[in-house]
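Instructor's aside before we start: the two examples that follow are unrelated to each other. I chose them only because their records fit on one page, so don't look for a connection. First example below.
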Amino acid sequence: MVVSLPTFDLNQTQANDDSRLTDKHGRAITDLRVSVTDRCNYKCVYCRTGNDGAQYAELPIADYLRIVRIFVDLGIEKVRLTGGEPLLRKGLPDLIRELAKLKTVDGESLDLALTTNGHLLADMAQTLKDAGLTRVTVSMDAVDPDIFARITRVPGSFDRVRAGIRAAQRVGLGPVKVNCVLLRGFNEDQIAPFARFARDEDVIVRFIEFMPLEEDRLWTPESVIPVRELLNRLSTFRPVVPLRANTLSETAQRYTFDDGIGEIGIIAPVSQAFCGHCSRIRLTSDGKIRTCLFSQFDHDLYGRMLRGATDDEVATFIRSTVERKEARHHIGEPDFLKPSRSMVHIGG
């Protein structure tokens, strides 16, 4: 079934000036992460409690479209659709199809990506590509099926995720990135196998430090596998060689192996924070702006829309919210407070 969405005159809605979103620290905000659902078919130990019965929040697809369109008019160049698990969201291809029509303020095509756990990807990859999706990132925290099942708490799912990665490559949703959250006691022994996986499957594997965003509150400093240990474990497979960053705001430190085959990324927000060049803003599935993963506050954009805010009023609210974006997070400092919402309710 095709969802009926409102049509917009794209020439009318493009920004008339070159005043881009910038926070009070001088950082240009060009990347928007949009959670289209906080439902998920996995219960990963570093994210969910494993309990059922949660209440879910989702906006109508047309409202996500309106919000993203306004953000793009303000200078957003990259949009990543997240969740929860975004492939569970009804009408997702319709949203992608409309978003793919948008142009940046420079007249360029929008960089439109999606992060998924991959469980449903094999069946949907061609549809997503045809709708206009640019590329996909798959969250996958082990290459050993038993360890994978222990982390996701969904037995027998590894083969489906691997099939989803291969389907995404086959239809042209690449380069496919595979994100692995490292959690001591669960998957540190998967680092070297992931190095081989990156080369064998021709994917970019990115290791992400475990952050204090989980519902079960398992996080401790000792649960984090720091960069030096990670590099040492990679080197047991083959020596690694650093690569130049693609952009100043890139979150991953890039590496290849000594023979130039394969790419590994390391995202280390805990031990080597990259806040100084942050270009991101987030929209939760219930329509609230998060200026940082570790914010203590939400900014209720959708509430204003429900009260009849015009596009200009929504844009003014976005600007004022972005201007107050935090300078950095405070993980590891004595006064650090875990954020008011867990990752699944913020958007990955």
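Example two begins here.
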Amino acid sequence: MSTSGVHVERDKETGVAVVTLDRPEKHNAITLEMAGRLGELWRGFRYEDEVRAIVVTGAGGRAFCTGIDRADAGRVPQPSSPYTIDDPLISIGPKANDLWKPVIAAVEGMACGGAFYLLGEAEFLIAGEGAEFFDPHVTYGMVSAFETIHMAQRMPFGEVARMALMGGAERISARRAYETGLVSELTARGGALAAAVRAAEVIAGAPTEAVQGTVRALWTTKGPARSQALAQAPHLVTLGNLPAERQAELFTGRGRGGAGGFRVR
């Protein structure tokens, strides 16, 4: 395991780098240290000409990522203004760090909440049959703003609305995610990483300037609307979130919406 919770492997022959969230015992929840490390990695990749395509995945097979580690979330002081927020995950994605090399996400197991900051900034997703996508924010009295905005760029409106509003009560299966276009390729359980690396190798074999220009062109189609939407997110979160102690009660199952089952569709 990487001491920072993020492991990187570079294959100079193929031009592919694999970034692995490496806290399997914590479902690859992101610590503040990991958030900083991810930002450094994406910015650093801009200067590594030998890296031409990147795969991001999670270790262990049980989860791609389950968002921020709640133990660390409480360590982030917040401004008193309802119009701003210090979000430690806001810069964990490649586009937030001005990286325009193609990124493919390989998803196994759970992907939820803050994972969408990463998934929303990948070019496309490949998932194993056991993958599940969900967003528990509203269940715990939290506004899903950044996450919903990211996923609304790549999911049908009704699908992302249902996922966000159903909270922890429902999970989108890998099959359903494939049917609705969130996932571009569905593999056998455990096969997502290998498939993502194969795709990355093909992309890395094409002329770099053409690839990066195509990536940039693709993102111009959604850039202005996405930026305007994300600009609204901070005050929606600060105005709509329950107090931290009430969130904690719901999270541990002592309040309404805590414990309970879920269904997969």
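Confidence is low (pLDDT under 50) at residues 254-260.
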